[in-house]
Structure formats: structure tokens, C-alpha cells
Design brief:
Radius of gyration: 30 Å
Shape: elongated
Order of helices and strands: HHHEEHHEHEHHEEH
CATH class of the domain at 93-207: Alpha Beta
Oligomer: single chain
CATH architecture of the domain at 93-207: 2-Layer Sandwich
CATH superfamily of the domain at 93-207: GAF domain
Strand content: 5-15%
Number of helices: 9
Structural class: alpha+beta
Strand order of the largest sheet: 3-6-5-4
Amino acid sequence: MTQTASPITEDDIADYLLATPDFFNRHAELLANVQLTHPHSGRAISLADRQMELQRERFKALELKHGNLLRLGKENVLLANKLHQWMVGLLAHAGSDDKQEAIEQLCSSLQAIFDVPQAAVAGSEAARDMASQMLLPTCGLAAEAFFQNASVTEALQDAANVHSLAVIPLPNVGLLVLASNDPNRFTAEMGTEFLTRLGELAHAALVA
């Protein structure tokens, strides 16, 4: 009984070419005759031209990735410098007996160094209770509840023009509130690691 040979598939061809890297060395004329479709213009191009196009696309992607890494690196250095400047100011006023003065200095330096339109510490009983229940800072729409639940409006200078908030717990002190009229400044999608560190430093400065 004669067996029918299985048809050759594209995977078979691909496996053969991978296993036979010198195939096109022995059949160089195929490289010029194989025609592919350009991914953007739709015109026919040779296999060699398509390989060059792929290399250019990979190079552009690497350039973009490298550019993003450089940008992030510069932003991180700038942020680290600002944090250092802020910490130096906190240390200069550490141990002050006037807690209200310490709070005002902390908030004004946050506004100046980090370009935050409004910064305040809500120290009401409701704010302290809320701070004791929070594990991490909260931003965006979730933070808006603090307007009603923790008397944040009383701490801010211009609550009417607040369109985004970051609320940072300061245990036994209250809530550190950063507010902006830019709705995209503090969003629910942003990370809170830096805000957590900011809160730890602020808390240490106020309870020293």
C-alpha cells in the first residue's frame, strides 16, 4: 500500500532554512528574485531591502528606548537634587519648639522646590484618624473624599481651585495634602513610592 507524503508546510520550510544557514550562499540568485511587500508603501521590495528595512526599524526602536532612558535618568537626577535640597531645609529647622512654624516651613518649601501650587497639613482629629487608617498615599479621585471626611478644605488656602490631590498620611500628626489646579498633576495611575518617602521625611521632621 502506497503512503501519501505529507505536504510541506511553511514551518517545514522555516525549520529547513534555520537548519541550513548556507542555503542562500548556494542560491544567492534567490535573494534578488524574492519579492516582499513594503510594510508602509505597499510596493514590492527585495528580501535584502526588507532586511535593511527591519534593521532600520530595530535601530529606531533602540534609539527611542535609549532616548527614554536618558530622559528618565535626567528626571531622576533632578528629582533627587530637589529631594536633597528639601531635606537640607528640613534638617535646618529640625527640633523647633514652634510646631506651626515647622509646618509652615515644610509646606512652603514643598511648594517652592517641587512646584506644588498648594501644600498643607490637615491636623484635625478627623485627619489624624484618617492618617492612622491609611497604609499608603492616595491620589486622584480617591483623594477627593478627603475634602469631606478629613476637613482638608480648612487646611488649603484655595480649595475652590483644586482639581487634583495627593494625600499623604502622617501618623499622629494628620494628613499632608498636595493640591494642584492641573487635573493631571496627581492622578490615580501615578506611583506613590516617592510620595511615601516624602511623607516619611515630613513626619520625621514634625515629630523630631
